[in-house]
Specification:
Structural class: alpha+beta
Distance between the termini: 39 Å
Helix content: 40-55%
Strand order of the largest sheet: 1-2-3-4
Strand content: 5-15%
Shape: globular
Length: 365
């Protein structure tokens, strides 16, 4: 069951919602979300509807689609968006982007210089309307979440999720559930009352500290200080994960069949399903060692997750019981990270139940 969506606000401006609360930090760090009770791994912390949502679209059309969508959003939701905090350096660069400014003026020109109520805009009123629209676009571009793998269902901005901070060692996972039409948030670790809740903004964990730092600062203007970014031993583990991930990717696409592959690319060569299984199982252990129990184990944004990889390579190696074992682990993790409202995955090969049934059928044959 999803927690209550009722929100209470105390004299300090702390917003409480179910088993969590939003607290205002110092002026440089904005807001953060904390657990108010002990939360067990797999618990659904929240399930929220978007403040604004745009359909799947190309990067070139995204800004215009946002302008169209914002024109239909109720005033109370736009007001909530305005109060979402952003890094000033990021939003300022977006506001000064000439493409976005041109798109905003073109949007109002195509509307014959009218607001959403049909009133004619001109002079200062028109300038204020364009400025407000650009400001909202800056918030959207900073805080929007892809809905489904690769933005299959579009993208949206969420009030609570926008206030959750990033960590490269997160303790929660967000996922768009098209069956529920909500963004769900589940605990990936046991949490204690008072723990801050973190998610991973950049998705892939098989990256070095330098790679993650570049993405985080370029997109959100933040510098992460989590343990994965400050402990050299963890960065060594992440580097090992990156190399192993690259080796598996090369094997999957056939690139490792090239002569002198390791010498040319500096990546270990994987030549057989057995070697691929061993590498994938190593990645699983490296993830668990760092308590990374999120979607990297279940399914990645553009490829199979680690449990699915292990299941596939076990099957290719003739280890059918092990293939089923990993398929069942994937199903267990799916229920922890998404829940049981998975009607949208019933006939999808990416769904864990589909894969379990597929493996069982293959074993019978």
């Amino acid at each position: 069951m999803a927690p209550s969506q009722d929100v209470t606000v105390d004299k300090n401006g702390t917003k409480s919602q179910g088993m969590i609360e939003v607290r205002r930090l110092d002026s440089t760090k904005g807001e953060a979300v904390f657990a108010t009770v002990n939360i067990s791994r797999g618990t659904r912390i929240a399930a929220e509807v978007p403040l604004i949502m745009i359909p799947p679209t190309s990067d070139n059309e995204e800004v215009l689609e946002f302008f169209k969508a914002s024109d239909q959003v109720p005033d109370d939701k736009l007001s909530e968006m305005v109060h979402i905090l952003c890094q000033l350096s990021v939003t300022e660069s977006i506001r000064e982007d000439q493409h976005i400014r041109r798109e905003a003026w073109t949007f109002y020109k195509n509307k014959k210089w009218r607001d959403r109520d049909g009133n004619t805009l001109q002079g200062k009123k028109l300038a204020r309307a364009v400025k407000k629209t650009i400001n909202l676009c800056a918030i959207y571009l900073t805080h929007n979440v892809q809905l489904g793998p690769g933005g299959k269902y579009g993208s949206g901005v969420f009030s609570l999720y926008s206030r959750i901070n990033h960590s490269c060692a997160p303790n929660a996972h967000n996922s768009w559930n098209p069956t529920m039409k909500r963004l769900t948030l589940h605990a990936t670790q046991d949490l204690k009352a008072g723990d801050q809740i973190f998610v991973n903004y950049i998705g892939h964990v098989c990256r070095t500290r330098q790679q993650r730092a570049f993405s985080l600062f370029a997109t959100w203007g933040i510098t992460c200080e989590c343990e994965a970014c400050t402990e050299p031993t963890i960065d060594q583990l992440r580097h090992r994960m990156l190399v192993t991930d690259q080796a598996l990717a090369a094997y999957a696409c056939g690139a490792s069949e090239e002569s002198n592959f390791s010498a040319v690319h500096g990546i270990p060569r994987i030549a057989t399903p057995q070697e691929a299984l061993k590498a994938a199982e190593e990645l699983v252990q490296l993830l668990k060692r760092q308590r990374l129990y999120g979607m990297e184990l279940y399914i990645k944004s553009d490829d199979d997750g680690r449990y699915r990889e292990c299941s596939n390579y076990a099957f290719d190696s003739g280890l059918y019981d092990k293939a089923l074992e990993y398929a069942l682990k994937e199903l267990e993790l799916e229920r922890l990270l998404i829940g049981t409202e998975t009607g949208h995955l019933q006939d999808e090969p990416s769904g864990a139940e589909y894969w379990v049934d597929h493996v069982r059928m293959q074993i019978i044959r």
